[in-house]
Design brief:
Strand content: under 5%
Distance between the termini: 47 Å
Largest sheet: none
Number of strands: 0
Number of helices: 4
Order of helices and strands: HHHH
Shape: flat
């Protein structure tokens, strides 16, 4: 378990689970017309994925610039998600 965290592979595993989840939601919505539309979760998943990339960078002691870039991308995706969902 220690190796899973110190190598950052735990983040890779979580990102893979997120990708499978997104694909399953997309196919379910496409087949049945039910569930959450893929575009409604895109920015949310993107923000979470970028936060996970920042975590991975911190776990493997990546240069701070890459971590900051991942955090900035997460902020932008989060802001876009809020803008898209905000009632008009």
């Amino acid at each position: 378990m220690n190796q899973l965290f110190t190598s950052g592979q735990i983040v890779d595993l979580i990102l893979a689970v997120m990708a499978v989840e997104a694909a399953l939601m997309h196919f379910y919505h496409r087949k049945s017309g039910k569930g959450i539309a893929p575009l409604d979760t895109l920015f949310n998943l993107l923000a979470g994925g970028c936060l996970l990339l920042a975590l991975r960078g911190a776990l493997v002691q990546t240069d701070w610039g890459w971590i900051a870039a991942a955090l900035l991308a997460a902020f932008i995706a989060h802001a876009l998600d809020l803008w898209r969902r905000w009632p008009r």
